[in-house]
């Protein structure tokens, strides 16, 4: 790791929106170094020794919570996972009361996932430590976009001038929103592909092109980012049936043939095989970087924990 450690100009990481190209590059560059560390036999450092990280998840999570836990432990932090299903929130305590209680415990880092957009930002105003948004409602999921960016850059060598198709349930996806912001900031060309019912109104104003036909939208694409159908957020009929959805918007080899020959496939997980992606395509290591995304996730979260605690650790 380099001895030069520039400061990060943000107290929290609440979203990609509002970050500059230099901020994103700083996170990704540092994460790239942590990938190398994580491939060593001894993966641990004492960088965050003595600091406390609390993972506060109001929504269920496997990948993101475990990834943040592993990231904190590999950097030497004391990591506490709070199960909100058995917490005082269930007894009627408000988010503000929870924030006050946690703040009194003097943590150094809070990693928060919440079902309501804006809840993490509200909580960040009530605590004295750094806060990382691990997903808030349909708003943002910044570390997912950052790990996607790292995955793409390591495979393609750049982000600028790539054509990226984000396909499926864009309407309910915080991953899509964070990726749209990041890719536009970094100079990529973004396409959204999905049925009209699952594309947000005014999507073009976000700096994207919109397609309702997979074959047409995938033409000339460098990156194909598939999204999970978030049926838990759907109320009403967004598509006739799962089988029809897969027929029109599920990624299989026939549709993949319309993209570039070396197009890379991403998926934030968890995957619904046979719904938004064919199992054989998902497991094709010559085209799919889905498992690599998981590895990059730990490195990116290590970079975020490192950067957001530098002032606290007295690192300039």
List the keywords.
single chain; 316 residues; alpha/beta; five-stranded parallel beta sheet; four-stranded parallel beta sheet; 11 helices; 35% helix; 15% strand
Describe the model:
This protein is of the alpha/beta class and about 325 residues long. About 35% of the residues lie in helices and about 15% in strands. It is built from eleven helices and nine strands. Helix 2 crosses helix 11.
The residue ranges in which pLDDT falls below 50 over 5 or more consecutive positions are none
Strand tally: 9
Total number of helices = 11
- Which sequence of SSEs, written as H and E, runs from N to C? HEHEHEHEHEHEEHEHHEHH
User: Which geometry do the CA atoms define?
Assistant: globular
Largest sheet: 5 strands, parallel
Q: Tell me the strand percentage band.
A: 5-15%
- How widely separated are the two ends? 16 Å
User: Overall pLDDT, averaged?
Assistant: 92
What does the secondary structure layout of this molecule look like, with pairings?
Layout: H1 21-38, E1 52-57, H2 63-74, E2 78-83, H3 95-104, E3 109-114, H4 119-124, E4 130-136, H5 142-156, E5 163-167, H6 174-185, E6 189-193, E7 208-211, H7 214-217, E8 223-226, H8 242-249, H9 253-256, E9 264-266, H10 279-282, H11 290-308
Parallel strand pairs: 1-2, 1-3, 3-4, 5-6, 5-8, 6-7, 8-9
Helix pairs in contact: 1-5, 1-11, 2-11, 5-6, 5-11
């Amino acid at each position: 790791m380099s001895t030069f450690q520039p400061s990060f100009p943000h107290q929290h990481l609440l979203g990609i929106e509002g970050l500059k190209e230099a901020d994103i590059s700083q996170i990704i560059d540092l994460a790239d170094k942590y990938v190398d560390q994580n491939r060593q036999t001894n993966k641990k450092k004492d960088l965050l020794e003595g600091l406390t990280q609390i993972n506060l998840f109001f929504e269920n999570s496997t990948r993101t919570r475990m990834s943040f836990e592993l990231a904190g432990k590999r950097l030497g932090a004391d990591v506490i996972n709070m199960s909100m299903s058995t917490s005082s929130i269930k007894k009627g305590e408000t988010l503000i009361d929870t924030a006050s209680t946690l703040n009194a415990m003097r943590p150094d880092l809070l990693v928060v996932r919440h079902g309501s957009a804006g809840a993490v930002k509200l909580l960040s105003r009530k605590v004295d430590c750094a806060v990382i948004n691990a997903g808030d409602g349909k708003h943002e999921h910044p570390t997912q976009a950052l790990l996607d960016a790292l995955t793409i850059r390591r495979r393609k060598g750049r982000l600028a001038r790539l054509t990226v198709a984000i396909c499926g349930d864009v309407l309910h996806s915080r991953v899509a929103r964070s990726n749209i912001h990041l890719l536009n900031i970094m100079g990529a060309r973004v396409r959204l592909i999905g049925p009209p019912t699952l594309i947000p109104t005014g999507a073009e104003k976000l700096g994207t092109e919109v397609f309702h036909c997979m074959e047409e939208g995938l033409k000339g694409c460098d990156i194909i980012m598939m999204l999970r159908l978030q049926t838990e957020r759907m109320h009403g009929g967004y598509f006739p049936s799962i089988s029809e959805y897969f027929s029109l918007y599920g990624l299989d080899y026939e549709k993949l043939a319309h993209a570039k020959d070396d197009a890379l496939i991403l998926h934030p997980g968890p995957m619904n095989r046979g719904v938004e992606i064919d199992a054989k395509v998902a497991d094709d290591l010559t085209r799919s970087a889905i498992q690599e995304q998981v590895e990059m996730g730990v490195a990116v979260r290590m970079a975020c924990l490192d950067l957001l605690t530098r002032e606290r650790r007295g690192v300039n």
